[in-house]
Design a protein that fits this description.
It is a single chain. The protein is mainly α. Helix content is 53%, strand content 3%. It contains nine helices and two strands, in the order H-H-E-E-H-H-H-H-H-H-H. It has a two-stranded antiparallel ribbon with strand order 1-2. A hairpin with a 2-residue loop joins strand 1 (25-27) and strand 2. Helix 5 (76-82) crosses helix 6 (88-101). The relative contact order is 0.10.
Amino acid sequence: MLAIPALGLSAAAFPRRIRAAQVAVQTFNGPMAAAGDVYRPVTLPPNAGAKPSMTDAQRDDLEHQIHCQCGCNLDVYTCRTTDFACSVSPAMHSDVMGLVAGGYSASEILAAFKAVYGERVLMAPVRSGFNLLGAGAVVVTALMRRWKSRAPMATAVPTSHVDATEGELAALDAAVRKDR
């Protein structure tokens, strides 16, 4: 009689459920999705007579502006150099290298990634539209705090001992009330 392990039998009976459960991999950066689920190629035809548009250091700086799509909170450069279980950041790095070799500038490369993934691919939001409202709120809050800290504090008038009789104090009180 052929013995089938329990997992093998359930995998044969429910292959999609088992495969779906195996998609998310936990890394030290957070839950990571499979590259096939989140990676989308970013390619453009090379410019005519294209030469690399930037140095390796400039390319690495550019990769610090692109958010890895594996599910971590890291940029492409940091994810590919620290999380060796990630298969998304090397693919995105390859796209960046192809675009650099095709003669595209940093702004053109960022625009190409934004066209494929949307604004979520950028590590910092674009300063336009509703995003400016958030930045404006931060500036207004900072100015209000500064203004509030500069406002003179109401200080209590120091009390001193007054040598006056009850009659003199009553007359003074009556005069002040009469002036109101």
